[in-house]
């Protein structure tokens, strides 16, 4: 009889224990975190169980997007309108209600939303490894980023930074200018053929060309191969990016990434395929590098995998995850910025003419070389202003890996911190009353002259986690834009639709069609 009761009671006890555990993980712990911040004056919208503020975000998006579309009808300068109101209307709404620091939740992820300059400065100056990248990125975006340099923390991140960052020091990047020119000239020659075949003027949708150009550069510069060898990887990473972007509102919802939905199955399939392709390239490279003099980034990553902290990841994961990070960040973000640059130069012909005149003055009819790039002040200002208005990364994100104090706030372990770069970059209090306008001249005296305080400009992140590849990105942008300006005059096609889209990066939603004419 007792055995029968035990058999009946055991499942009940297990269910009660499971419910208690889930209640503690999904509600009790988060509520304690929220209470610690509320007691310090941090407010925010009230979350619901399991979904946090996701449902409210959807409701606000619907309401404010409709209102914003009505306002947009009266705007004459469509390129200067603040797209943040369309992409992230809930953040604007909550900022008006709760101020420059507030707490909100997406599922089980609890984030401090920060636009306060003093708190941003605290984050920028914090060197502690206790403030790292959000752990959820490794889980929710694992197929795309894994535990590479963009998402790892602690000793593993420090090791990755030591391995990868030197490959992007300026002296090495200058040595890549010739291969950048080769890739750019190949692309532009195809454009010239198109223009010639259509009688001197042609409409080109430039996005895919720029994506392939940037992929070619990162393939040659970092992996010692041509774009054709890595083409399948780039294509699958792009497919994976698009698939994950469709599910971004579910990030943080407990268990959602384990469900065998169509989107998840596609993510798993692409993630496995990318992993296998990278390991094939790494294996081939390791074999070829025995006799190669020019080792490059891939060699450094392979060697770095052998000395990585053993408890953090396997050597294969170290190679795959860091290669995925370089492939994604190294080509997707740069090509997107180049597309925005061309859109703005096409829309503001005076700045296009000014940048071209400066280019001709600097080059004096000579072939472009690395030393010329630093003399191109106007082009640099155009790129900086483009990165201000259309930063590729929408957010700078951090997580308190242990309890930590920032300014006057005691941040409990597990709290995420998000700085909305696109919003900060358009703050009139920082940039002046023309914050929404395209005005490269604001950078005439550098970043410190453009905004007060200067740490509010963060296209490549802030603090110790600033993008290791920013030198490569800036030089690559200068090279491709310089060569394009020297060979074409371009304007925006009437087919262009201005609708910035958030697909893990902020990119032109419907592409950038340009009308090209040879000079």
Automatic annotation (TrEMBL):
InterPro entries: Cyt_P450, Cyt_P450_CS, Cyt_P450_E_grp-I, Cyt_P450_sf, Cytochrome_P450_Monooxygen. The chain crosses the membrane at residues 6-28. Keywords: Heme, Iron, Membrane, Metal-binding, Monooxygenase, Oxidoreductase, Transmembrane, Transmembrane helix. One of its GO terms (cellular component) is membrane. It comes from the Eukaryota. Pfam families: p450 (PF00067). One of its GO terms (biological process) is lipid metabolic process. Heme binds at residue 467. GO terms for molecular function: heme binding; iron ion binding; monooxygenase activity; oxidoreductase activity, acting on paired donors, with incorporation or reduction of molecular oxygen. It is found in: Membrane. Its cofactor is heme. Belongs to the cytochrome P450 family. This is Uncharacterized protein.
